[in-house]
Amino acid sequence: MTALAFRAIGQPLRRKEDARLLTGRGRFSDDVALPGQAYAALVRSPHPHAVLRAVDTRAARALPGVLGVFTGADCLADGLQPIPHTPAPQTRYDLTLTAPGGGAIFIGPHHLLPADRARHVGEALVLVVAETAAQALDGAEAVAIDYEPLPFVTEAVAALAHGAPAVWDAVPDNVLVDTRFGDAEATARAFASAAQVVERTFHVGRVTAVALEPRAALGHYDATTDRYTLHAGSGGAVRQKRELAGTLGIEPSRLRVLSHDVGGNFGSKNRPYVEFGLVLWAARKLGRPVKFTATRSEAFLSDYQGRDLVTTVALALDGDGRFLGLRADNVSNVGARCVSLSPLGKGSALITGAYAIPAASLRARAVFTHTMSTQAYRSSGRPEVTFAIERLIDIAARERGLDPVALRRRNLIGADAMPYTNAVGARYDSGTYAANMARAMRLADWDGFPARRAAAARRGRLLGRGLANYVESSIGAPRERVEITVRPEGRVDIVVGTQPSGQGHETSFAQVAADLLGVPVEAIAIVTGDTDVVSVGGGSHSGRSLRHAATVMAKAAPALIDKAKRIAALILDAPLDQIAHDDGCFSAPRRNRGFSLLELAQEAARHTLPVELADGLAVAADNEMHDPVYPNGCAVCEVEIDPETGALDLTRYAAVDDVGRCINPLIVHGQTHGAIAQGVGQALWEACRLDAGSGQVLSGSLLDYAMPRADGLPMLGTEIVEVLSPTNPLGIKAGGEGGTTPALAVVVNAVIDALAPLGVRELAMPVSAGAIWRAIRSAGDGRSQVAPK
Fold this sequence. Notes:
The protein has 20 helices and 28 strands. The chain is α+β, with helices and mostly antiparallel strands. The strands form seven sheets. A seven-stranded mixed sheet has the order 3-5-1-12-9-10-11, with helices on both faces. Strands 7-15-14-13-8 form a five-stranded mixed sheet. β16 and β17 form a beta hairpin.
């Protein structure tokens, strides 16, 4: 009988999956090949808005190796349906977004190929399938399309203007969502009584995920079984199966989706792409597997993108610096089709941040533009509103001559106020916000800053520091299922519906199961991403994965242990009420045998069990969880700027994150580091750029789209706080998104702090060296204010 050697939860175990992934033994979408597969290429629109007057495919069809050329008209003729996106958040406590005047939201039909118009640069218009990838590209170049270019609009504010070009005739003003939250009358009274009001408009611009693995898809149709199979990396195979079956017009049972290893996601792969449906459809029409792999340039054109929120936000304060009220007008650019309203909805609930603001009102709008669709992107919607409130606080402090830390401390929600319902109805479950801020300041050596600033000045440099608190919400799709089977071979198979895209689920999920079941971590195999095995599950998004998986495992574990006791009673020939379960071992008094769970499975395989136990040590459990959790924390950073060139060095960064129960600190610290880099990337370098006159993408490659690099980041100081959430059995919040949430605000606050002596008060992201240099020159030559070298 083998006892459990140690508890796995809370241990910094190295990731089980890394040996496979780092030695080339991973299985990503493009690694999959099937006999006889053909290759797909797409003709993409060069126009942001144009009527497709005629599509001539004759020359393409005549080229060597071309097997088929398919258009939007072909899709309609075959009865293909638009992708049935469900963009509004679905859990019970999400803020409800509605169309103007209430009612259903028009999302813009997302056909696999349009038959009428192109609505953004890079939209897929024609599919070419050939024997080789090169022949498919040749065929795509031979397709001739007669375009009638139309007026277009790419920016959210411009789309709101009277007479702006309409993306959809059904929504002539481009506004698909217009909803108000909070108490407008109470907010008006707060502003009327205020001693100080600060108001600004911020644009948190558009970025793209640049996942390490560009999207790929391989479709297969088996005429014998009349079933389709799709190999495609995603954030949730079960959802992809349901939505793609709807597009093909088939029963979901006729489609199998396989998501193997996924090389990065951050939200960009959570919803189906048109190519996923196209390769399945083409595979049936041609009788051969069809494969599509996006180039990096195609990904820049046609990956779902993130952010793009314009917010006008105002903060009212009394004479003592107490926050009285906040009002905001948020406008989300959803692109040409509405794929997800998560950024608008999630951010709307958190406009007051970590602060006790008694009154707030918000107008939340979403608008169509002639651009690629936006989607949930790491910490969906929360970095945008955190940026707004944290910038306003710094602005208010500077206007009043107050210490920005003292102003924050005066207004933070107290730990004794938890659970706390904010002014728009979000109920924060737990947190120690002031203590987090104090921890972050100690970690960043806050008190040593004046000496560092003086030393920088002696070198002719400007040193600035920023601080930002954050609170974010994690909810996600509410349903999850687990199936646990203890195999006689000495392995525990755990089938769960949330799947990884690099987060280390094979390790952290196994740690939870190890403690719940009393078996070694190495004996547990996590099975995900195959819809013939996984029947229910919400996938990986909104920080839901570990919380939902752990909760449903915690629900299943007692049932498995109870079943194991019944089997042990039969094998040990002992009364059921005498079977003891202690530290993973099953035994009975006056018996000279006992079993671990793994040993019991081996022994059970040698016995003929009664009908009610014939399936052995196997159980399943379903759960539906609607309660959100609210991870929170604080970040501090320092930047050093050369006023002659605008060059910026990020010299210090510290972050404290309350993730609730931390299952694996090594993984959480790693996720925090990556999340910080992602947020800093947007603050300093990353931006999706379009040419205003033509709508063309200017950031279409890694030569044009600047990414964070290791040499641009300092050593990151991170600490984990564990204030357990009362909403789930293990007290888990989330650990994958918190690093991103305050990063935009803390970096810009630091930059403005450095440049304030030169008269610079505002800078739009990304705050590149060129932008800083121009801001310094616009504010007047301040070099005389910098101490000589």
